[in-house]
Amino acid sequence: MGKYIMLVCLAAVLLDCHSGQYMTTRRNPEPASCDTKCTYSEGTREADCNYRQLSEVPMECNAASHLSLRHNQIERIEPGTFQGFSDLQVLVLSNNRIRQVEANTFAGASKLGMINLQSNNLELFHRLALNGSNSDLREIYLGHNMIAKIETDTFQFVIKLEFIALNNNNLSSLGPGVFDNLRHLEVLDLAYNKLKILSSDIFAHLRRLQTIILSDNQLISTGRVLILPRITTLDLHNNNLTRLENVMEQTLARLQVLFLEGNPWNCDCHLEALRLWYMWLHSQGDHGVYVDGPVCHEPPSLARQSINGGHEGFCPNLDFSSTTDSPKSTKGSADEISNITMITSSFTGELNSSGNNNVKVIVITTLILLAVMVVCISCVFKYECIKNCMPNVPSNSQRGDDRQFTHPDGPSIPLNSQLSDETNH
Q: Is pLDDT at 403 greater than 70 in this prediction?
């Protein structure tokens, strides 16, 4: 009996100990691992959460530096969701169902360098959405959504952006000054929108912009895009452009890619500089520059002819016989003609030497003939002056001490003789 009582007591003690341990475990659970919902690499701290049918951002992965959530079912991101993601550098949320990005959505992610929100259902990207995120953010992808408006101060908190993709949206206009503070921006993709007119100064402050893609819009004007100091790639195909403003020699010389097809170009005087540049490229074997084949829509005489073809100039009334004088024309503004003259002087000297319109040869020949004429006229005037003022100059046969100067009203005096006192007085 005593042994039975001892066994019962021992069992009770063991049960109590086990219960205590269980309760302790329940009160202090181990932190959940990112591996429960995603594939996580401790070494690289990359979390692969793609194709997991997730409806929200997994908080278990807040230690990740690279978080990819492509192809899930996320519809909304609560502001403050990323407060604990202090080491997050790359965030990929493409191919979800997100409809709007609200103010302060990325607050707390103080090391974010890239955000990818492509291919969602975005209609609104709040102007304060990037407030509280990393001010050193470099890349943001917002393409393939339904964004209709980007407000002026949308990028005010991330002025070190280098890459912005806004392609394939519903943008019909851009807020004035929307890019003004982005002095580090190098690539801007605005293709496949509904843009019609760009304000002339919308790119004025983008001193580092190298690539701008504006294809497949409804543009009738490009503003001052061609005077950017570092522009190398410009895609304007499939718009409603009839002319290209501000064609500058310096810009054309830097271009590596220029696409202009699919526009109703009016091939008159203002496109002459562009035509000359195409000719120069052809003479250089394209010079490592990629171009397409834009064609003229007007005037009727040039319709369907290639702008970069070998036909004659678009500005027949221009006189390029001298690059030192302003050419005269009945077409084109003064600025356009000035630009054509500058580009002509730079590029035509390198065009095919067998051409009939070798401007450089004509200019040099003209200058030589002018110089010869000036010399001849000078000699004639000098001879006439001597003849009229000194009618009795001796012939070249007289030399040295025999030379005499005869005053028109007095006797001959040897040039080496001394005047007498009588003469002096």
A: no
| 310: nearest Cα among 341, 282, 336 | 282
Question: How many whole angstroms separate alpha carbon 47 and alpha carbon 69?
Answer: 9
Let me know how many helices (H) and strands (E) the chain has, helices first.
6, 18
**CB atoms closer than 10 angstroms to residue 212:** 23
Q: How far apart, in whole angstroms, are the C-alpha atoms of residue 194 and residue 148?
A: 9
pLDDT band at 116 (very low <50, low <70, confident <90, very high): very high
DSSP run (H or E) holding 118 = none
Whether the CB-CB separation of 230 and 254 falls below 8 Å is answered with yes
Angle of the 334-347 helix axis to the 272-283 helix axis, nearest 10: 10
Q: Is the peptide bond before 299 cis (omega within 30 degrees of 0)?
A: yes
**Token pair 């496109």 is at which residue?**
271
- pTM for the whole thing? 0.71
pLDDT at 144: 98
Strand, helix or coil for residue 369: helix
CA nearest neighbour of 163 among 138, 145, 143, 142: 138
State the Cα–Cα distance between residues 188 and 214, nearest whole angstrom.
9
Residue 311 has phi, psi (to 5 degrees) of -70, 175
Query: Would you say 238 and 260 are in contact if contact means Cβ atoms under 8 Å apart?
Result: no
Q: Closest Cα to residue 226, out of 258, 194, 197?
A: 258
Q: List, for residues 201-252, the tens digit of each pLDDT value.
A: 889 889 999 999 999 999 998 878 888 889 999 999 999 999 988 777 777 8
- pLDDT at residue 129, rounded to an integer: 95
CA distance 412 to 422: 16
- 19 burial class (0-12, 13-18, 19+ CB within 10 angstroms)? exposed
- Judged by average pLDDT, the poorest of 11-20, 231-240, 282-291 is 11-20
DSSP state of 300: G
Would you state the structure tokens that stand for residue 238, as one six-digit string?
A: 């499939």
The residue among 114, 129, 130, 175 whose CA lies nearest residue 148 is 175
Distance (Å, rounded) from C-alpha 295 to C-alpha 315?
A: 16
And the tokens for 101? 């990005």
What does the pLDDT read at residue 311? 64
Neighbours of 366 (CB within 10 A): 13
Tell me which amino acid residue 37 is. Answer: K
Token pair, residue 269, equals: 């005087």
């000194």: which residue's tokens?
A: 390
Q: Tens digits of per-residue pLDDT, 406-419?
A: 344 444 334 343 43
Write the single-letter amino acid at 350. Answer: E
Cβ proximity of 277 and 307 under 8 Å: no
